[in-house]
Structure formats: C-alpha cells, structure tokens
Design brief:
The protein has 128 residues and is mainly alpha-helical. The chain has one domain. It has five helices and no strands. Helix 4 runs antiparallel to helix 5. The longest helix has 28 residues.
Length: 128
Amino acid sequence: MLINLKDIFWISLGAVAGANMRYAVSRLAAQQISSSLPYGTLLVNVTGSFIIGLFLIWTTERVLADSHWRFFVAIGFCGSYTTFSSYAFETLQLFEQGHYSLACANFFANNLACLIAVLAGAIVARAL
C-alpha cells in the first residue's frame, strides 16, 4: 500500500488543530474548574468522543463527504485532540499518590462519559 501525500497533509493539518485545541481546553479547565482532578483531560476525552461519534455517523449515514474530511477530523484532529494516554497516566498518578477514590472517579468518569458522548454524537448525527 502506497502512502498518499495528500492524505498525510490532511491528517497533519487536523493533528495540528487538535493538539492546539487540546492544550487550550486543558489549560482553560485547570484555570476555571480545578486542577485537583484532571478535568481538562476528562473534558477533552468527552468532547472528542462526541465529535468522532457525530462526525463518523454523519459522514457515513447522512451525507457524502470527501475522504479528506475523514483524514482531517477523525484521524488528525480527534487523534491528537483526545487524550487517552494522558488520562491513563493521570489515573495511575492519582492511584500511586494514594488518592484511590479520585483514581476510581477519574477512571469511571472518563469511560462512562466518553461512551455516553460518542452515543450522543451518533444520535445527533442520525437526527440531522
């Protein structure tokens, strides 16, 4: 399989946008909510789950979209915007610091909220 440079361009463009949005949302959440629990990561994971659910259902079931949008949004933007690895590490840190209830809360909040968000995105896409 050959690598298509146009696809790489769209993925890269989306990744730059997603990474910068992730940074902005995480910083804003830490400033506006609290830094005791990694709310920024939770917010990014939930909104990213909603975006990918909305986008993929909308572009596969509702509208015909150019494949470059899938590379830009699903792979590039959501791939760099969502923070599953950060969430996993932050949960480990909470656990290792003895904050067992916060570690469990972070684990369940991220998993449950993201599943609900991807479902909500799919529902919204199907309603469009």
